Amino acid sequence: MQRIWINARRLRNDCTDAERRLWHSLRYRQLAGHKFRRQCPLAGYIADFVCVPARLVVELDGGQHLDALAYDRRRTEALQREGYRVLRFWNDDVLLRTEDVVAEIFRVLEEKSEA
């Protein structure tokens, strides 16, 4: 278990450009007061971003995920079993259309808060 926390810390320190860009919009409760954590251990995996109270995980996928579709599916299923909704975005979408990605995350957060 300690190994997963060490890996999470390493991932926080070595984040991708897309993760850095999205984190800039999610940190400090900037998105309607919702608190996000980054590179957070959850259900035996490390989630890129998670809003625990809203039970929402945001995953960013780069080109390497094309070769890991089965792994990503298992990971999503494990997170869903824990009661989380999983949103996935391509790194390119975050880098080229940051506002659209943030708007979609906000829409889902608001949808959950109305339910």
Structural features, described:
With 115 residues, this protein is α+β, with helices and mostly antiparallel strands. The chain has one domain: VSR Endonuclease (Endonuclease, Chain A, 3-Layer(aba) Sandwich), CATH 3.40.960. It has five helices and four strands. The protein has helices at residues 2-13, 17-26, 69-81, 91-96, 98-114; strands at residues 37-42, 45-51, 56-61, 85-90. It has a four-stranded mixed beta sheet with strand order 1-2-3-4, with helices on both faces. The radius of gyration is 13 Å and the shape is globular. The chain starts with a helix and ends with a helix. The model has no long low-confidence stretch (mean pLDDT 88).
List the helices and strands and how they pair.
Blueprint: H1 2-13, H2 17-26, E1 37-42, E2 45-51, E3 56-61, H3 69-81, E4 85-90, H4 91-96, H5 98-114
- Overall mean pLDDT score? 88
At the fold tier of CATH, the topology name is Endonuclease, Chain A
Count up the domains. 1
> CATH homologous superfamily?
VSR Endonuclease
Can you count the helices? 5
